[in-house]
Specification:
With about 525 residues, the protein is mainly alpha-helical. The chain has 21 helices and 5 strands. Bound molecules: iron/sulfur cluster.
Length: about 525
């Protein structure tokens, strides 16, 4: 009989500081935790250096915490001799050495990883126990129970149901505090510069463990995209809490005020920057929401700002995860608009004359981050308008953002941003031309292109591609009410104008390196 009862495979985004599942089921005398740093997780889609460092540094700190609690941890470092380079390989090596009687995991954040572990367990004829992830408020089963039978999955309805069920900002008689479920107007005012003054970011000085990870990544994975130079993401529970408290103190009160705005040299605006520590599970959504609500009760943040934040954490985030598991593994191959072009190289270099893309992609390369408006209106919008393969866009988001995890990225990037699911997540194809970017940013000031022009050397490529997109997809999107007025303009264009736009779009695709495959 093997000495190890159960091998617990803990993944890099399962760093629950409260050890909720382990506390209930782990036997310190007979069980072992397996954690593995493997290069394949940074290469199967190219992962930004800072994203890789974030995961590995957080894992090393977490393993130290587990050991300090008396847990036996089998930990493989990136540079260790014999590292199998893949999660499957490291799992097999651990099974060979420890010969456990069973295998246990918390549900991973990715179909690929779940299926891989199931395969290995089946090959070894090992019982596998998959525990639900207690981090989330809504289990995949509960989401499917809500979704089944509905003709469309509307985030707003889900959000209201979750708020009512968990009694968050809800009165005793079940009504929303403030009198409405949504307290912000959907249409956003024109960009008005950086007012109020933008708060500085909290500094997370890398300790010896994090510095060792940075050195290891530079040594073994130095060819990964992005730079590690300004790494400043929370990798421990303490740092994650510092980030959370900093947000509540300095940015929550204005959360949502500038959600559609983009300002040159301002990568953070009033965004929370909590997606990365939440997605690694260093923070719990319940505590995050509670702190925000408490700040409102103390009069430190207005209700509309707090409601907008709560909506993201327990509405949008839980909804996106629910969709990921509910829609199944083939969701990743959806391509409702039939887009097949390759992602242009400027997404890896940031080199382009388009100021908006230079800012957006440049920020990603520098920080592993772009905020909501940049993802929606710039990097995602351009790829959608240019007809880039949605899976390539989704993979770029997965690897290049510190908060990139499959369950979040796929519905957000492939579904919502690229409209590849035909409207499962978000019914509107989120397209915008140069005028919209001009309205919400200072990017067009000083750009060599003219946002209002759609053809000719000075024409804004966003504007050219916007009209080209609408001309190409006029029939497919005809029933899309939210694009009705734009499509009506296309319908009123003469054939000659349409031909002109289509031809100029082809010229610009060539100039910008958007190629057919
Ligand atoms: Fe971007 Fe067009 Fe504005 Fe230039 S003019 S920043 S390309 S939207």
């Amino acid at each position: 009989m093997s000495a190890t009862r159960t091998l617990w495979f803990v993944l890099g985004d399962q760093l629950d500081p409260h050890f909720t599942v382990l506390r209930r089921h782990f036997d310190k005398a007979r069980d072992v935790v397996l954690m593995a740093e493997v290069s394949d997780e940074s290469r199967h889609v190219p992962s930004h250096k800072q994203r890789t460092i974030l995961f590995l540094a957080a894992m090393r700190h977490y393993a130290e915490r587990l050991r300090s609690k008396g847990v036996t941890v089998r930990y493989t470092r990136l540079d260790d001799v014999g590292n199998a380079s893949t999660l499957a390989g490291e799992l097999r090596r651990a099974l060979d050495t420890l010969q456990p009687q069973s295998l246990a995991i918390v549900r991973p954040g990715e179909w690929r990883v779940l299926r891989m572990i199931e395969r290995v367990a089946a090959q070894r004829k090992l019982p596998l126990r998959v525990h639900e992830d207690p981090h989330f408020l809504v289990t995949p089963q509960a989401f499917s129970a809500w979704a089944n039978g509905r003709t469309e999955l509307v985030m707003e309805r889900f959000y209201r149901a979750v708020r009512k069920r968990f009694r968050i900002l809800v009165t005793d008689d079940g009504r929303p505090e403030g009198g409405a479920w949504t307290l912000r107007a959907e249409s956003r005012p024109r960009f008005a510069g950086n007012r109020p003054p933008l708060p500085k970011r909290v500094v997370h000085t890398p300790d010896a463990t994090t510095r060792a990870v940075i050195a290891s990544v530079e040594r073994s994975l130095g060819d990964l995209p992005g730079t590690a130079a300004e790494f400043n993401w929370p990798v421990t529970r303490e740092q994650a809490l510092a980030e959370l408290h900093d947000f509540v103190r300095h940015r929550l009160a204005h959360f949502g005020d500038d959600v559609a705005d983009m300002a040159t040299g301002a990568p953070w605006m009033h965004h929370s920057l909590l997606a990365a520590p939440l997605n690694l599970k260093l923070l719990d959504p319940r505590e995050v929401v509670q702190l925000a609500v408490d700040a409102h009760r103390r009069g430190e943040a207005p209700l509309p700002a707090v409601e907008a934040f709560v909506r993201q954490v327990i509405g949008r985030r839980e909804f996106i995860r629910g969709v990921y598991w509910h829609e199944g593994q083939d969701y990743a191959s959806r391509n409702a608009l039939g887009h097949r072009r390759a992602l242009p190289t400027l997404y890896w270099s940031g080199e382009t004359e388009m100021r908006c893309l230079r800012e957006g992609v440049g920020g990603v390369l520098q920080h592993g981050f772009a905020h909501h408006a940049q993802r929606l209106l710039v990097t995602g919008n351009f790829a959608l308008l240019a007809g880039v393969d949605p899976k390539e866009v989704s993979d770029w988001h997965l690897g290049m953002f510190v908060d990139g995890v499959d369950w979040a990225t796929l519905p957000n990037a492939l579904g919502s941003s690229q409209h590849a699911d035909g409207g499962t997540v978000g019914t509107r194809a989120p397209v915008a031309g140069g005028r919209t970017i001009e309205k919400h940013s200072d990017y067009c000031d000083g750009c060599r292109f003219e946002p209002g022009m759609r053809t000719g050397d000075d024409a804004c490529p966003m504007t050219t591609f916007y009209w080209d997109f609408l001309i190409r997809h006029q029939a497919t999107l005809a029933a899309n009410r939210r694009l009705a007025s734009a499509l009506a303009q296309v319908a009123s264009m003469s054939d000659e104008v349409k031909r002109e736009v289509t031809a100029w779009a082809a010229v610009m695709r060539k100039r910008l390196g958007v190629v057919e495959r």
